[in-house]
Amino acid sequence: MPSPVDVSQNGNARHVEAAPSLFEIEEDLARLLERPRQVNIERKRSFDERSFSEMSMTHSPPRQVYKNSENSSRVFDNMVGVYSPGRWSGIHTPRSTFGYEPHPIIGEAWEALRRSIVNFRDQPVGTIAAIDNSAEELNYDQVFVRDFVPSALAFLMNGEPDIVKNFLLKTLRLQSREKKIDQFKLGDGVMPASFKVSHDPVRNYETITADFGESAIGRVAPVDSGFWWIILLRAYTKSTGDTSLAEMPECQRGIRLILELCLSEGFDTFPTLLCADGCSMIDRRMGVYGYPIEIQALFFMALRCALFLLKHDEENRECCDAIIKRLHALSFHMRSYYWLDIKQLNDIYRYKTEEYSHTAVNKFNVMPDSLPEWVFDFMPTRGGYFIGNVSPAHMDFRWFCLGNCISILSSLATPEQASAIMDLVESRWQELVGEMPLKICYPAMEGHEWRIVTGCDPKNTSWSYHNGGTWPVLLWLLTAAAIKTGRPQIARRAIELAESRLLKDSWPEYYDGKLGRFIGKQARKFQTWSIAGYLVARMMLEDPSHLGMISLEEDKQMKPTMKRSASWTC
């Protein structure tokens, strides 16, 4: 068994004797006393631990416990409310909980992450997208909601929740601002894509300017920002045990406003959300308009997190009822129509078209000839994944990493589907991981398809940026999914690949090429979420209890009875 290690101020590791002296014991005790106090709260079963099939919004006192909740089970019962930052070094860098010797780049990563912190009136409120003095700032000097999520998780895992709380409150306040693009007013629930802190040296005064899409490429509002905000609020609550933030009237209202945008009735015949191109991490034209997997998976996870966070009172009754109904419909739709494995692929290959009535097997009238040739070779005998998009006469068969990983973490994927997704990753390691994790999507569009779909976008050329590029930030999502499915060896293998390159390449935003061998042609260096994504992945691998703040267990009673054609399997 390896001996414990310490990390000095300069990041060098030194071994500590197995039998500590009295002075060392006193030093350790002093460090423990300096650590943030763990919040000890009474164990209460949360919404994500109970089947929302069993819930009825009867008017009982707030935070009621629904019937039969004691019969539900959860893998992470011993992880609820965990607050395990590990032992800290002099630079506030966590030492390994289990005595592993830390990788030399961990100290460098923490120092780089701390340099990215943005303060507003002497309080940390987020981290900027990148610190690359060799390139024009553009909007990389702003705090992006989606970009801050891995930074927030890293700080929570390290026992530093204040910056996360400040960020949640600041973005909530920005939500209340009037949002207009030209003469059109956006919905009240829209969260900003990003914000910038500006300092007026003459007045010695700081202000915050938010971007709700009016300055973004293509002028598209960020659909994912609100979902990430809800997910992060739950992560903060689970990590700290502090429910007072989520229970604030302002936070309760903010959650409702976000969900009202998504749960309102309209012309849609599907429970999925209709979106424009460029409304999420892939924020440029990439043919992901319609019902993209990333947005649907985040939507599902945000709905489940909202059930955990909302008070169970009369004010929230209607919203919670709508959430429960939507979760049932959304899970059925996604598990049925988006899931692709070797059997389903063969069924689509043999589809008949122009079917009419409710007995139709080819419900979306997808043309078998539209199946791309690559998918037949890509699909392994064992394995499967959620495809990129489903709409009338259209299926996008591309693999999208974020959507599939979130599907596992939110339990949108059944245990069997989650296992199949990881089987696919292992079987197609060279294509999806290569020499650097992790492909944002696969495969890349080339030639005529690239010209038509992207509009000849020079940044999204084949195997670059969003078009088959490799994004190190996705490492934390793969790690979380691998741990949840009992495949930590997948995470370990990917992390080792990243550690061989990230520091010496100065933490680039993305890599180019089929194998991810080259630093992206327009990639920023010292990209904050590349740094934070690595730290979160490393900390989760060393202490899997951290997974509890970002993972939701399956609701076993949510599985619908499949009364459909045998051609559709879930």
TrEMBL record:
<keyword id="KW-0326">Glycosidase</keyword>
<dbReference type="InterPro" id="IPR008928">
    <property type="entry name" value="6-hairpin_glycosidase_sf"/>
</dbReference>
<dbReference type="InterPro" id="IPR024746">
    <property type="entry name" value="Glyco_hydro_100"/>
</dbReference>
<dbReference type="Pfam" id="PF12899">
    <property type="entry name" value="Glyco_hydro_100"/>
</dbReference>
<dbReference type="GO" id="GO:0033926">
    <property type="term" value="F:endo-alpha-N-acetylgalactosaminidase activity"/>
</dbReference>
<keyword id="KW-0378">Hydrolase</keyword>
<comment type="similarity">
    <text>Belongs to the glycosyl hydrolase 100 family.</text>
</comment>
<dbReference type="GO" id="GO:0004575">
    <property type="term" value="F:sucrose alpha-glucosidase activity"/>
</dbReference>
<dbReference type="InterPro" id="IPR012341">
    <property type="entry name" value="6hp_glycosidase-like_sf"/>
</dbReference>
<comment type="function">
    <text>Invertase that cleaves sucrose into glucose and fructose.</text>
</comment>
<protein>
    <recommendedName>
        <fullName>Alkaline/neutral invertase</fullName>
        <ecNumber>3.2.1.26</ecNumber>
    </recommendedName>
</protein>
<keyword id="KW-0119">Carbohydrate metabolism</keyword>
<dbReference type="GO" id="GO:0005987">
    <property type="term" value="P:sucrose catabolic process"/>
</dbReference>
